[in-house]
Amino acid sequence: MGCLLSKRNKIQPPNEEEEEEEESDKADPIIGVTQQVEQDEDLVTTTVPVFKEYSLTELRNATNGFNTEYIVSESGEKAANVVYKGKLLVENNNNRLVAIKRFSKLSWPDANQFVVEASGVGKVRHKKLVNLIGCCAEGDERLLVAEYMPNDTLSKHLFHWDKQPLPWEMRLRVTYYIAQALDHCNTENRRIYHDLNAYRILFDEDGDPRLSSFGLMKNSRDGKSYSTNLAYTPPEFLRTGRVIPESAIYSYGTVLLDLLSGKHIPPSHALDLIRGKNVLLLMDSSLEGQYTNEDATNLVELASKCLQSEARDRPNTKFLVTAVAPLQKQREVASHVLLGLQKNTAVPPTLFSPLGKACVRMDLTAVHDILLKTGYKDEEGAENELSFQEWTQQVQEMLNTKKFGDIAFRDKDFKSAIDNYSKLVVLMPVPSATVFARRALSYLMNGQPELALRDAMQAQVCMPEWPTSFYLQALALSKLGMETDAQDMLNDGAAFETKKQNSWRG
Questions:
Q1: Among residues 472, 158, 156, 207, which one has the least CA distance to residue 339?
Q2: What is the pLDDT of residues 401-442, one digit of tens each?
Q3: Is 204 assigned a catalytic role?
Q4: CA distances from 108 to 37, 112, 176, 398, 425 (A)
């Protein structure tokens, strides 16, 4: 146990001037999250293996001889191109779960064309995509290998749910993540996306929605195919039999209708309802009380724009991103929480206090509520206020700054909380673990996990056995992708909580 600083020498201790420089460098926030930071993080794909050609033997072994028990396609063996779950040896001799799509033998007569096309798609990498990591073209076999998504498709969650209907906030997150994925493909000059629908959107191990890269593959018939019911296909495909870049926008509009209604409604019927201002008839009744009329109306209007019969009248991908970004009201809530998924943890949840459990769930809103209720009472000698010395003008300024910081923290104005707590840290004669903890959470809410980690470490310096500081370090480390260290911090926090409880009993 102990401060992470001893475990990770690369992480420097807090420096107020450095923090201010970093904040100024990231001074263009969009809806509480810095756009540039978000974009950079989306492009980080270090855990995705380099694209390669696999042998048929490797893929046959990965699927136990293409065993039907390994099929994960929702239509099973009836699917035109079956998808299998497999375990494949990738870089560094690690086993990795993958999805292997096996095309019908007539889909790609030209093996070289298939490999060239797959290799091109394999270069397009993004956290909002199900990335393509390999292919195989031997004899009559044509196979694609992609990341495995363990938490089903949007179709399953929308139309065939078991425990709960897909919540409104997750539906909004789908609109945003898929718009970002399409926009990235556009910037990578992959402007054609084939047959975008609820089956092409899958949920990863964290519950985040991702767009399948299979739809980026230009098929051997030069785009002259569309697998869905003709009632949902873009008008230009019905007229010419060809898919164009704007076809993806139309299909995005049909996905918006799916999300709004919870049903697969033909666009023509939905547009009739919209024109007749019968929008409430369009909405999924299970969502009652979860959305504002304004947000629902904005999404309906966007769907209407996407479903224009003339391709030139539809918006572009950047417009989609801009339109749905302001609708994201609960960015701080992890996707697995919205989906109702339980994330595995090596430590039994019974060892954790409510704060520890909230950190395991990555539920920042719950963490905020707990820190707010706890106040400053964990700090020795201060039940409600910090210990201050004699009454001077400096102390008055300190008290006012603390008050403004606490009000901003209570009201979830995390940028103002950061500003006021940063001033308070400079003014205070004695550091406060609670102030560092509150600023750490504010940094997490503001999409700045590295600064949050530094503050959580500083809180531990102030109070070496304070469980809260360890839990906040765990949150920041998890956001930075350092899951092993995050688990260590959770274990340390739980151990100190147990020690504290035992001392009370003694």
A1: 207
A2: 888 989 989 999 999 999 999 988 888 878 888 999 999 999
A3: no
A4: 40, 9, 33, 71, 64
CA atoms within 13 A on the CB side of 140: 3
Residues 6+ apart with CB under 8 A from 25: none
pLDDT in tens, 177-234: 999 999 999 999 999 998 899 999 999 999 999 999 999 987 644 444 555 566 678 8
Residue 241 neighbours by CB distance under 10 Å: 13
Could you tell me how far CA 233 lies from the centroid of its own chain? 29
In single-letter form, the type of residue at position 468 comes to T
CA 192/CA 251 separation, integer angstroms: 12
- In whole angstroms, what is the distance from residue 249 CA to residue 7 CA? 48
Largest CA distance in the chain: 86
Whole-angstrom CA distances from 317 to 178, 180, 243, 249, 491 are 10, 8, 16, 7, 44
Domains and CATH numbers, the chain: 4-32+335-505 (1.25.40.10), 52-147 (3.30.200.20), 154-327 (1.10.510.10)
Q: How far is CA 167 from the centre of its chain?
A: 15
Catalytic position from the list 183, 195, 258, 363: 195
The full 3-state SS of 364-384, as one line of letters, equals: HHHHHHHHHHHCCCCCCCCCC
Which of 202, 198, 218 is CA-nearest to residue 210?
Answer: 202
